[in-house]
Amino acid sequence: MEHLFPQILQINLTTTFMKLLVLFFTILIFIGSFVGCNYSILTTGNNADLDYKMKMSTTEQAKLSYSLINSEILQTKCIGCHGNSGGVNLETYQNVFDNLSKIKTSVFSKKTMPKNNSLTAEQEKMLWNWIELNAPEFAQTPENEPQSEPLTPTYSSIYKNIFESKCISCHSPGNQAERVPLDKQELLDSPLELVLPNNPDESGLVIAVERTDRKRMPPEKEGYAPLKDEEKAAIRKWIADGAIN
């Protein structure tokens, strides 16, 4: 009897091992089917759900254009990071068109963009429909095309063309740089001497945007591209002219 004990023990261990092996593969199969199911939902169900949720009338769709999407969404929510340095550049229609798939995935599937400034429900609807229409460059109803405002050395133009898209997401109440507001009077009255009329070289705003080290604004560590030369020149000229307009 004693000589049979090792054989019985070996059989029991083998049986236990086989049971564990079967259990392991069963779990793997279950996980695989679960993930596969979710993947199917992501690639099919979500699009159908979004199509229903984002549905626009034919009249509303006819107003969609690159110019509208650029002024309402890209300039205010995206260009600050996706501008003239590295990564995905969204400054031109062709660049945006070439990255439609990435935009759709990051905004609607992964929900990772925009990073610091979420789209409103209306902006999401506009962007979704525009992409679904294969991103028309021009509206079917041209009279609704928004007119872009050229950059000039005035506060209102600088605010519209630079601050709104590249600064306000941080320099506004409740955000990380709220103690440095960019309202005109706040800039003029700032103890940080951000704007010294007729003296751009010593104005903190000019120094901040023209510097090339880690402290330049908008901040590189937050993913923002530096201002273009013409944008820096407009700020400098506005201050040199007395920061009046």
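^ that was protein a. below is b, sequence first then the tokens
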Amino acid sequence: MMIGYIYYILDLTNADMYIGSCWKHQWNERIRHHRCKNNNCSSKQIIDNKKFIFEIFEENEFENLSDRLQKEQEYMNNNININLHYAYGKDPIKTEKQLERKKPRNRERAKEHYYNNREQKLQYIKEYSEINKEKIKNYKDDYYKKNKDRLNQEGRQKINCPICNKEMNKTSLSRHIKNKH
């Protein structure tokens, strides 16, 4: 069993609260992480206001991480907080809100990045493949040796052609479609 803390960070300007947990031996490191400029945690908005306090809700012995996170989740359920993520389990309401906010923007940004950098990426892959031919060949050989039985078993699996419904081995499907259809 290990001693852990369930803590909160309270914004003194607007009463926003962030709830977290950590092991006792990680307490100072966790505080440093919250105060770090690169903090991506939802506590950042509280820390940026510069008027806040760290307080411990509970110091307790926990058998494992799961027990600690369950306890943290209890505090999150019983207190209004700004946490974006559930500590334990999934919060369907917050998850939907997060997905609504993030997905469209991230998808569009990823598409834009792909189209802007497509030629460079293809050129990099081509150059890397030429320079590292031997390394790639060795990797593929090692992978095949380690997974030979599984790969052969999957290849012998019987499937039907989606076009003509002919039964064949899985490894023969692409050649069959290419030659017959």
